Amino acid sequence: MEASMDATPFPAWSWSVEQCLKEYKVKLDKGLSSYDVEKRRERYGWNELKKEKGKPLWRLVLEQFDDMLVKILLVAACISFILAYLHGNENGAAYQSIALVAACISVSCSCQVRHAPGCC
């Protein structure tokens, strides 16, 4: 059962606390000494996961336009623009409201994608 730090790691997750303490030569009430901590950091590195680089926000926003619902809304917006123009609606309220709805959907979808676990 005794293995040195130079040997392959043992399956600590499947052993009892007492077995792990004995294997790593650690006392439960004191833990590792500063020297042991530095020695193990030199050998194994910091106990950290590397953070994967995510997609930039502008790319997430552009990817939302690949969604079928957003495409349908954009087509509806274009039709509404054309109808408003043909009927002489020059106040721009239709243009602004449709642009606002499309922007809100895009931002909302981008936020959902950005905060989804395991995504990007």
Automatic annotation (TrEMBL):
UniProt keyword annotations, A-Z: Magnesium
UniProt entry tagged with the keyword Magnesium: yes
Pfam families: Cation_ATPase_N
Domain (Cation-transporting P-type ATPase N-terminal): residue spans on this chain: 11-85
Domain of life, per lineage: Eukaryota
InterPro entries named among the record's database cross-references: ATPase_P-typ_cation-transptr_N, ATPase_P-typ_TM_dom_sf
Stretches of the chain forming a coiled coil according to its record: none
SMART domains in alphabetical order: Cation_ATPase_N
PANTHER family in the cross-refs: CALCIUM-TRANSPORTING ATPASE
Full protein name: Cation-transporting P-type ATPase N-terminal domain-containing protein
